[in-house]
Each structure stands twice: as C-alpha cells, then as structure tokens.
Amino acid sequence: MAITRRSPRRREVLDVLRAAAGPLGVTETAERIGVHPNTVRFHLDALVAEGLVERRIEEPSGPGRPRTVYVPQPGMDRGGTRGYRLLAQILLSQLASRGPEARSAATEAGRAWGRYLVDPLPPFREPTAEEAVGRLVALLDDLGFDPVPEGSGAGEPPERIRLRHCPFLELAEEYGSLVCPVHLGLMQGALTELRAPLTATGLEPFAEPDSCLAHVRPLTSLDVP
User: Fold this and answer.
1) What's this model's pTM, rounded to 2 decimal places?
2) Longest dimension (CA), the chain
C-alpha cells in the first residue's frame, strides 16, 4: 500500500469511526464532525479504497431498509509520517560507539547485502570482467547511485565507477566513516557473489563536488576470495 499524507478531514473521519462503540452510518459520522454528509461520504469512500475502513450492510431489526455502515479495519494506521532517517542515525551512532571496529563492521554489513542484492549468474559459469561490472553497475543504478563506468580501454573493464548521486547523502555527510564503507563493502560483496575476476579496492567520497569514485582492479593471488 502506498504511504500518503492524509488530509486533516479524512483523518478526523477515521478518528470518529475508531472512537465509536460500533459501526456508524454516513449521517451519524457527519453529525459527530459537524459537516455535510456528502463530505463525509467522499472521505469514507477514500478510506475504504485505502483499506482502512470496511463498508458493511446492516440489516434492520424491524421493518425498514438495510443501511450502509462503516467500521475501521484493525491494525496500526499506515498513513502517518515515517522516520527512517532518524532510525538510521540511531543505528549509525550506536555502531560508531564501537570505536575502531565500527568501520570494518560497516564494510562487512555492506558485503553481506551486496551478495544478497546482486542479480546472480547461472551456476557454474564464470563471468567476464565486463559482464561482472555490468551487473554491478546495474545494481548500483537500481539503488540510486547513478553510476558511470570510466577509464576502460578496448576490451578492458573500467578502472573506476563514478557515483553521481548518493541515496544516503545526508547520512554520508554526517557518518561518512561508516556509510562509505557500507557502499564499498556492498560493491565487494556483489563482485564476490558474481565470482568476478576483479574487486572494488577503494571508494573516494566526494572526490569531486558532484560525485564519488569507486576504484576497481583485477584480482591477484594476494586477494582473499
């Protein structure tokens, strides 16, 4: 369900339904708010479409026609605000308190997610360097880094990948010593999962005012798989 900012009137309609002892009709809801029934009907229809309110037909206890009533769906309201950046700041500040080991822990977390997120190759097939970089670039693009490979010669893989956008820019400015290692680890983990013949060796945060640079090179016998 898409998370949207709900209008004050629609939230008021929902609050009235939640505070009621039982189902309410359009007229009853309108009377409790003090607005025209047509206004309430519009918001009730929208709340039903959002899955927050259920429309029911209530049979009369005696003579008369059935009436349409509304009840709130159980569960927490998903229309409120979110604080994911605050959550990230809380977790990063806790990680930073671990001292010298925090950076390596951030890198390892990135590697684990890189292995998980990259689009895998078929089994028993070793990719070329160009193919592996292509899959890495596709992953970085999906994550919002706006990557551009650079420095490749004819038939050679790129020497670096320019990252023209940081999806965690404000966090990187505040906690660059942790966020940037996560990014580097993510690239390393993805290349490891692909069984690529190259690795990411470093990340230059804000190497230029408008971008960061990730450096890649072929694997050597000294590299740990």
Assistant:
1) 0.71
2) 88
